[in-house]
Amino acid sequence: MSQQPRSNIDRMVLIVAAAEQSGQLTTELLKAGFSLTVISPREGFLGFGATCLLLGIDSQRMQELLEIVQKTCGKRRQFVPAQGHLVLPEGLPPMMIEAEVGSAYVFSMEVEHFEQF
To answer: What is the pTM of this model?
Structure first.
């Protein structure tokens, strides 16, 4: 039985993306042939969730990966409920503030050794 050649995994990438953008980001990365692991979302800044994606890649594909993230996870301005200790009279809608939402943070680490079983 012959084995398929294994790609050179020499870089581990952690992407922390806004939850509302992570579905599209995951789709685009899979379409481009990247393999990834999704780590459960948690509550993030201003009440918006964040999703972590973990990828092992060939460092020669790093620029391609960054272009996909940049295209998919752009920042935008949106009105969100103000959080804090401001108490409004009952029945009034929450105070809204304009905030910059969306984006992604990309962390890249060198991999000394990789095995897949």
So the answer is: 0.71
Domain count, the chain: 1
Check if the beta carbon of residue 104 is closer than 8 Å to that of residue 73: yes
Give CA 81 to chain center in angstroms: 23
CA distance 52 to 43: 12
| Contact of 22 with 115, CB cutoff 8 Å | no
Please, where are the H alpha helices in 3-112? 19-31, 62-72
Per-residue pLDDT of the chain (117 residues; tens, 9 = 90+): 444 445 789 999 999 998 888 899 999 999 999 999 998 766 554 455 788 999 999 999 999 999 999 999 977 666 666 666 566 667 666 667 666 656 789 999 999 998 888
Give the CATH number of the domain where residue 56 resides. 3.30.70.120
Residue 37, beta-bridge partner list: 54
